Every structure is written in C-alpha cells, then in structure tokens.
Amino acid sequence: MAPLKLLPDNFTLALVSTVVIASFLPCRGQVAVAFNWITNVAIGLLFFLHGAKLSREAIVAGATHWRLHLVVLLSTSALFPLLGIGLKPLLSSLVTPTLYTGILFLCTLSSTVQSSIAFTSMAKGNVPASVCSALASSLLGIFITPALVGLVVTSHGATTGSPWHTVGNIVLKLLVPFIAGQLLRPAIGKWIDRNKSVLKFVDQGSILLVVYVAAFSEAVNEGIWHSISLLAFAGLFAVNILLLAAALFITAFVAKRMSFSRADRITIIFCGSKESLPSGIPMEKVIFASHAVGAVVLPLMLFHQIQLMVCAVLAQRWGARKTPAEPAQDNRNVGVPARR
Prior knowledge:
Elements: H1 10-24, H2 29-53, H3 56-63, H4 66-86, H5 88-94, H6 97-106, H7 114-122, H8 127-152, H9 164-183, H10 185-194, H11 196-221, H12 230-257, H13 262-272, H14 277-287, H15 293-320
Helix pairs in contact: 1-11, 1-15, 2-9, 2-10, 2-11, 3-8, 4-8, 4-12, 4-13, 6-15, 7-8, 7-11, 7-13, 7-15, 8-9, 8-13, 11-15, 12-13, 12-15, 14-15
C-alpha cells in the first residue's frame, strides 16, 4: 500500500486538469466576463464563511500577533527584493533583460490574500493570523511596491494613474464579506461549524477558479506560449522555481528558529512566500510603460502558476497530517509535561 502514497491527491489532479483545460480552452470575451464574476462571488463567499467561522477572540488574537505579521512583511518587502538583486548574476544568464525586470518587479509585490488564506485553512494553520497578515500585506503593498520599484528596478516607464482603485477592490471584495460574516456569526456560526465540508469546498473551488480565470486563461490569451523562445521560457521557469524554493525554505527556517507554533509556521510559510498576481497586474499597468507591460508581466504570471501548484500540494499534505497537541505559546513551558 505504501506506493499509493506517492500518487497525487484529487485536488492536485484537479489543479493539473484546470491548467490543461485553460491551455486549450481559455475563457474569452463574454465567457471570461461571466467566469470573472463567478470567481469574485466565490472569493467573497470564502471570506464571508471565514468571517462567520472565526470567533471574535480568535480574530483579536490573530491581529495582535505582531511577531508573525512582522516576519511576513519582512519576507515580502525585504527577503524577495534581496533575492532578486542578490541572484542577478545567475538570473541574468538565464533570462533576457526585460524578463529580469519583470522578475525584479515580482519581487517587490505584496502577499496574495485569497490563496494564502485558503492554503492556510487547508493545511490547518492559524487562519485568523493569516487573514490579518495577508490583508495588511496587500494594503501596505499599495504604497510599498511603488517605493521598492523605484529602488530595485532601474529601467521603467513613468508612473501614471492612482493605486486607490486596488485598495477599493481589496476592501469591497475581501474586507466587506469578512465583516458581514462576522456580524452574522451568531446566526450561522453553528451551522458552519457543523458543515465544515462547505468551507473546504469553497476553499478549493475558489483556488481552481483563480487558476483557470485570473491566472492561466489570461496568460494563454496574452500569448504565454508564443511571446518568448523555448530556451528563455525554460530559464524563466527555473528562476521562478528557485525564487519560490528559497522563499519557502527561508520562511520555514526562520519561523522554526523563532519557535513559532506549527499553525503559525504554516501561516508564515504560505503568507510570506507569495507574490500577488491580482494586485500586481493593475500596478504593473500603472508603473510601467504600456509597450513593456506584456513582457514584464510574464514572470509574475508564471510564478503565480507555480506557487499555486506547489503550495496546493503542500497544503493538502500538511492538512492530512494528524497534528499533535502543541505546548502553549510561552516558550518557558516547552518540554514540560502538562499537569493532570
């Protein structure tokens, strides 16, 4: 029976199938409009259910977990830019100058919100802290990303437009449903607790929709298979794998060295290793000249696919593990048997 453990689970197979379908049948035109609407509804429903599921005490505890939030913020706004700059000799030999500019831009982005929280929930991490950390990262990223672009990206077009539209989208699509769920928790919280499979279905379904609609369909429609040579694409793929692997390893190492609980480590890994496509593309259109957007956005599109696929596998496997009871957050009690 042991070899069966090597087989991919149903969710991983669903992700691979979604990528294949999007490659051959990407949504376009009115179909894309309809699927975008469905995706927005699914994401709103996800945050509504999380808001109704989480107790007020859990949210307050998550919001005040400043050490965790600081690690996540440093990962997205310091670790990634340093990786992009420090690996320049290697990256420049693998990709073209324009693609390297796109890599630097991807390294300046904030954490994703929806997928970070969904993966944290699937892996049995600290969901309240994930909600607070991912939302804070996205909101702060509106201001941090342009500043980082000015520091680490040397060749880009003039800045035009305003990022406040992205802030409005985050508030309307994510915060408002979450708050609505919190307000209705006294009425529907017990029902959600009895029907946890509903939340799991929405978690996984929203990820599949994002992969199909917001990520891979758009990439295919942008000509992802034709815009660069096979050699450059292979180099870009290797670079993105390297960046994600480095981020996953470093965040896991730091979280463990800082004696975070297992649930907090999962939250740090998933929130700290992500770069946001939904907020990245609008910013890219604002920051860069219009003729450069297509090539510069390609590294972000590909990184988004890879992080979703890899983190989906990790979340599924970690969530399937039996989690032993952990000691209290007070590190002085580590290793001390509990009193009976």
